[in-house]
Amino acid sequence: MTLSIPPAAPESTSADRGAFVPGFSGLSCRACGAEAKTGPSFVCSRCFGPLRATYDFATVAQHLTHETVARRPRTLWRYAELLPVERVPDDGLPVGCSPLVPAPRLAARLGLRQVWIKDDSRNPTLSFKDRVVAIAAARAREFGFHTLACASTGNLAASVAATAASMGLRAVVLVPADLEPAKVAQAVALGAHVIRVDAPYDAVNRLSLELTDELEGWAVLNVNLRPFYAEGSKTIAFEIAEQLGWRAPAVVVAPLASGSMYTKIAQGFEELSAVGLIERSATRYVGGQAGGCGPIAAAFAAGLDEITPVAEPVTIVRSLAIGSPADGVPALALARSSGGSVEGVSDAGVVAAVRLLAASEGILTETAGGVTLAALQRAIDHGVVGTDDEAVVVISGNGLKTLDVLAELPDQIIAPTFDAFEARWAALQGAGGAVR
Amino acid sequence: MSRVRIPPVLRDVVGGSRELVAHGATVAAVLDGLFADQPALRDRLTEDGRLSSFVNVYVNDTDIRHRQGLETKVSSEDVVILLPAMAGGCDEVRAHLSSR
Question: pLDDT tens, A371-385?
Fold first, then answer.
């Protein structure tokens, strides 16, 4: 049985749906601790360190209970007390509450006791990016921006495009020119102004940083709204915990690009424990990177504390092709302190893992999900994950977005006759037992 | 004399300037010259005499970490770009995990 989050209980009231006591207490500098005014800023005015959202956990513990959450609609706003907002927006896309799917056939193939797929490809634009965009876009409108912008490896572009449309705002997205055609087309079709840049993602990201605060009315969601944006990924952990009956699993496996989602999932479980919604857990966090762009995996394997950026990523996994990961150092520290690992995976291993998930559970993931599943396989091989473990695999995007590298159409076309079918079927059966 | 581009988040300490100029044959020398002229910028971007890890430096759009770091050569034709390094801020997670 897939563990979905149940609909809001009939006794749900309008107060349950919209009203809440905010737990968000402001922004502060991660480096020096200085408080910052809540606004579209991401850098400390004193020391240039990054800003983060902070919460009053005592207040949250008082107001956010299992029962309160259960009464609320099935979107990520059901955890509003632990999100960096003072009110829940009344428009935008219905994001979150993606299913947690049991994967018994995959577990048997991997030799694990229990495997769950957190299928986050089941968000409105088919990726987890809808979570971070939902939070940042809500804040962007509060701050008076009319344009939602971003640098993207693909999924974010579509999410920004759709979210902007759903809120009556404009979307402008900058993408590397070599992105998967399906991802670019999705953003274009959703009405975004798509600017293709002849450079890898890191250069596109640098360009977006240069644009930030230069253009009146533009919110660059993953830059000047980053303290709000990054918090959206925590809701993956909130949902996993709720779907497991308010507990954390032994192992969480997630893909690493900037490292933000991976670390925010851990933060999510920590916060649930801090406000008494789950017991403190000893969850291990396993991360996956593509071998052709694996600066965090390389540092982990070498036992280093510093990340050496990759100048020119070479991988089919374009959504993870970030050579200079913003949260690489915290991700590395999390992998080590939790007893997890960061695994590098070859492109061939990615494709094999995508096919394994599809064949064993009927879930078609984009290449990043192949990295994630292959990382779990490597973590098992390395003894990081054992046969008695229960693992949750976060599938962050839908396979329709990367079909260009995952599937080839059958080259044989037959006439519409029984004889032609029989001949073709016989040929397929003879081809190494490919047909069951 | 190289041009140094100042991002909006730092302009309050340089009188609103979008671009400044500084002498030097390497990134380190250019930044030394810049900081001599703009001590408030030095205060914001350095700690114990070292450039903050929260600053990324580019020469003509190339991250100096892909070249020779602060020893990267700079000519008068080059543009040095200072930008904040982005991070989500997860130290609290590390603190929790290391304390258990």
Answer: 999 999 999 999 999
pLDDT at A14: 42
Task: Give CA–CA dist B87/B27, Å, rounded.
Answer: 24
Nearest to A161 by CA among A256, A204, A76, A152: A152
Residue A402 contacts residue A366 (beta carbons within 8 Å): yes
Q: At what angle do helices A347-361 and A367-381 cross, to 10 degrees?
A: 100
pTM, to two decimals:
0.92
Which are the contacts of A312, defined by CB distance < 8 A and separation ≥ 6? A200, A323
Which sign does the torsion angle of CA A9, A14, A18, A20 carry?
Answer: negative
Strand partners, A101: A117
Per-residue burial over A234-245, b = 16 or more CB atoms within 10 Å of its CB, e = otherwise = bbbbbbbbbbbe
Distance from CA of A143 to the nearest CA of B (A): 17
CB B30 within 8 A of CB B22: yes
A209-261 pLDDT tens trace: 999 989 999 999 999 999 999 999 999 999 999 999 999 999 999 999 999 99
When scoring A48, A270, A284 by the number of chain B Cβ atoms within 10 A, the one with the most, hence best to mutate, is A48
CB contact set of A353 (below 8 Å; sequence gap of 6+): A345, A369, A370, A371, A372, A373, A374, A377
A296 vs A309: CA distance, rounded Å: 9
Residue B24 to chain A, least CA–CA distance (Å): 23
Q: Which of B42, B90, B91, B98 to mutate to test the interface with A (most CBs of A within 10 A)?
A: B90
CA separation for the pair A150, A147 (Å, rounded): 10
Torsion of CA A415, A417, A421, A427, to 10 degrees: -60
Give the whole-angstrom CA distance, residue A337 versus residue A98: 28
- Interface predicted TM-score (ipTM) of this complex, two decimals: 0.85
Cα A392 to Cα A112: distance, rounded to the nearest angstrom = 11
